[in-house]
Each structure stands twice: as structure tokens, then as C-alpha cells.
Design a protein that fits this description.
This protein is mainly α. 35% of the residues lie in helices and 0% in strands. It has a domain of 55 residues. The structure holds zinc ion.
């Protein structure tokens, strides 16, 4: 009789559409290389990632800025005299 059990990765994919079994970069198969369960170690890792994300050199997105001035990008206007 086949097992009806599914892995936690299969469950995440089914319920939340989060695919942990396929690499988002290359499409290759991903495997678990470590399972960290010690809360102290988890807090230490998350604190490190927070600090890394907060440093200015590692931003993934550019700083937000105001929209460009529309007047700088308007089509040039030519009079009929210039077109003849
Ligand atoms: Zn990959």
C-alpha cells in the first residue's frame, strides 16, 4: 500500500505555492543540507541576516526617489514651418 504521507516541502508547495524543491536560479533540484532547531542558533542567524540587510552596501532594491519631471521627457513640438 503506497504511503499517503507528503513531505513538508510538498505541503508548502501545495498550500502556499512555495517551491523549496527547485532552485529559483537554475531550476535544479534542491536538497536539505542542515536542519537548525536550536532557538538560540536561529536567533543568531536571523540577527545576522537582519544586520546584513540593514547595511547600505547590500540593498537589493535601489533607494526610492521622486518621479522624473514630466517636462524633461515631453515630445518636442514642431510647427508646420519646421516640417516643410
Ligand atoms: Zn541553482
Amino acid at each position: 500500500m503506497p504511503s499517503l504521507a507528503i513531505t513538508w516541502a510538498q505541503r508548502l508547495k501545495r498550500v502556499f505555492n512555495i517551491d523549496l524543491e527547485t532552485c529559483s536560479e537554475c531550476g535544479g533540484a534542491v536538497k536539505v543540507i542542515a536542519c537548525i532547531e536550536d532557538p538560540a542558533v536561529i536567533r543568531k542567524i536571523l540577527a545576522h541576516l537582519d544586520a546584513k540587510a540593514a547595511s547600505p552596501g547590500t540593498r537589493l532594491l535601489p533607494e526610492s526617489r521622486a518621479p522624473p519631471q514630466a517636462g524633461l521627457f515631453e515630445e518636442p513640438h514642431y510647427s508646420n514651418d519646421q516640417l516643410q
